[in-house]
Amino acid sequence: MLNVLIETLADSLKLLPFVFVAFLIIELLEHKFEEYSEKVLAVSRRFGPLFGALLGLFPECGFSIMATGLYTTRVITLGTIIAIYLSTSDEMLVVMISGGAKLNDIATILLIKFITALIAGFAVDLVLRKRNLAVHMEKKGHEEHKDVLKEALFHTIRTFVLLLMVSMALNVIMEAVPDDTLEAIIVRNIIAGPIISALVGLIPNCSASIMITSIYLRGLIDLGTAMAGLLSASGLAIVVLFKENDDKKENVSILLLTYGISVIAGIIINLIA
Predict the structure, then answer these.
(1) Could you report the per-residue pLDDT of 110-156, keeping only the tens digit for each?
(2) How far is CA 47 from the centre of its chain?
(3) Quick check: 23 and 143 in contact, CB under 8 A?
(4) How far from chain centre, in Å, is Cα 102?
């Protein structure tokens, strides 16, 4: 157990500089990105799901939270917010980059998220095309003097701690459980895996995407199972939705719709991959 702890800590420390640099770049881009993306969504209703699916791929869940505010004031459509929730990467991209994932694997996952979000978003808007939307926008304040370095350091420490905890748990499991048992679990979870993974993804915290991505990079779950959890993982956006939107039935419908689409997409990927 002591050797597992030492090896896990050493491996995690090696990732620390990469995680910090990644978050620093993200924070610098996000500082310029948020206001621009808000304007894009506000003037692009007809093609909202397209822009939402693209913009949602930007790392961190801050964008999905901002977009939730736009939805509660009916600046963007239901299909657009669904597309954003499905394409939101949260901490996934940082974990994959720092974990040494291949570029084509990262591109594949991002492409799947984008296509799923795009199709689902336009489908929802097509079904609800007669839905009345308000044309006004409630202007919300932004942080004018955001401490980029402090934010990057905070996210780095938080992600490092979560990665360390997840890695420790996985290493203990892999030491204790025989390889043939792990292989059997992977095979059996072709359908059940996405159902469970998507539930984990709904946890309103970045730990969900970190855990799912870490497990996938270890080869303990297949692509479809990982995608189900990563599609449903929109960070704290769901919490903001339930807090800001008075229509609780609608909030539950959005939650179930996001979950259902994520599960279906994951199962389909598992069956055809």
Answers:
(1) 999 999 999 999 999 888 775 544 433 444 444 444 577 787 788 77
(2) 22
(3) no
(4) 19
| pLDDT tier for residue 64 given thresholds of 50, 70 and 90 | confident
Torsion sign, CA atoms 197, 199, 200, 202:
positive
Cα 102 to Cα 19, 75, 77, 149, distances in angstroms? 16, 38, 35, 28
Query: What's the rounded Cα separation, in Å, for the pair 153 and 45?
Result: 36
DSSP the chain: -HHHHHHHHHHHHHHHHHHHHHHHHHHHHHHHHHHHHHHHHHT-STTHHHHHHHHTTSSBSHHHHHHHHHHHTTSS-HHHHHHHHHH--BTHHHHHHHTT--HHHHHHHHHHHHHHHHHHHHHHHHHTTT-------------SS--HHHHHHHHHHHHHHHHHHHHHHHHHHHHHS-HHHHHHHHHHHHHHHHHHHHHHHTSSSTHHHHHHHHHHHTTSS-HHHHHHHHHH--TTHHHHHHHH-S-HHHHHHHHHHHHHHHHHHHHHHHHH-
d(CA 229, CA 258): 11
Q: Which two three-digit tokens encode residue 10?
A: 């050493």
Q: Look up the pTM and report it.
A: 0.73
What single letter denotes the amino acid at residue 114?
A: F
